[in-house]
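Request: Show me your protein:
***
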Amino acid sequence: MVSYDVFLKVAGLVKAKRQVYFFEIPDALRQDFDAFIVGKTVARRGDDLVAYPSDILAWYDKLRTRGVDYDLILDIHPNATPAKITDA
């Protein structure tokens, strides 16, 4: 189940204005990020891949305007009934 906090975490990564390690991307959004980052330039830091701040911002803008390209189950309120969100 995905909470709203994962989107807040992505917003925090955008505000940091730095390269973002792939492992910092929330697991619930990783499939969407992986599809988005295809064809973009990435760097390697040690054994890990990092995305550039401009790509993180572009992905965040995509999340805000077009949403997630994969089905998610969101839990917005602790007592809420999970609702399946789909891209129509």
The helical segments are 5-16, 30-37, 53-65. The chain is about 40% helix and 20% strand. The chain has a mean pLDDT of 84.
